[in-house]
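hi! just following up on the protien thing from before. the input was this:
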Amino acid sequence: MDDLHNPTPADAEDARPLFVAWGMLATVQRQSSAVVLLHRYGLGHETAPNRRSMLEHTAQVWWLAQDGPDAVDSLNHALQRKQKQLREAADEAGLTYDGTIADAVAATELPANPAQTYLNVSHLLKRIGAPLRAIYAGESMLTHASLTSAERFYTQGTDGVRLLSEPQYPDGAQAPGERAPYIALVLLWFAMSSFNQLLDGHPWTEDLQRIAAEAGIEDVAAMGQPTG
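and the predicted 3d structure came back as:
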């Protein structure tokens, strides 16, 4: 994915969704590269955090393509809240900092809008499609410290307990990490397809359709397909 110079937004009156979505899409692209590289070195299991991050950023690109300025305004609400939490944590820790930006963010008046409900990633993924929400729940269990993530590294049998240095899955179960490159491809495609809706004339459509056909992801491509 190359840089875009002076892109023409589909919405000439408010280009903010295009710019924000590009930042999200660029993150998805770089995360997909990280997934492929780690998998190549036998670390597919360890790409769960990357895959989860890709899901979050891909969902945000879709949301920006759907709700446009309302999504950007909602993200500004989230930034304001996160800045407040950061400041409170820094104050509690006794850290010193320049409060100029924090003051400006806190003082900004932001009107509420119904799209803010989709700041909750579960709500957003449910809107896009139940399969993505289910995948996200599974990836979260492998990403966060949990019994699910820990039990991949020990076995119990008649001969006792064995602690493992590499993850092990039950016989016949495919490790999620083995499909990590394909998952990365699907999510990158979905993010690019959504971003394409924000570009005037949707210039990537033909190439995206060809890639979907060649990769066999037509069913995934149809899920949550942006309109407009």
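The longest strand covers residues 154-157.
The chain has ten helices and two strands.
cheers
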